[in-house]
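ARCHIVE CARD
Drawer: 12
Card no.: 0347
Subject: one protein chain, sequence and derived structure
Cross-reference: see card 0346
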Amino acid sequence: MRPARTGNAAYKETIRETENPRSIERRVFLQVTRDLEAIEENGQLTPDAQEALEKNQKLWGSLMFDCMEPENPLPDSLKAGIISLAIFVDKQTGEIFAGRQKISSLITINRNMIRGLAGQTPASAASGG
């Protein structure tokens, strides 16, 4: 006999079973990006800010390793682009921790990824720059 599940647990399980991977990735990027935007507004590298930056770095690291898997069905050019962005995000995060860069570039990259996952054109391409 299965133990009774809470409504929240049942909802999460249903989402996992029915939501496509692209939608899940988009949702994760939305949450991480909201956290980064909150950091940008605060302007301080608090423990919460460090945690948000680390989550973003881990997200991009996961994407990078996923793109390196031989069975990944994405086109090679797209995988290469994601891997390049992940490396940039990793380096940029170190620069932010060192106080040499601002978080805005990471937010822009994430927003463009969110648009791409939604099937929209990235902002820079849409604006011609």
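Annotation on reverse: Residues 7-120 form one domain. The chain has one domain: 7-120.
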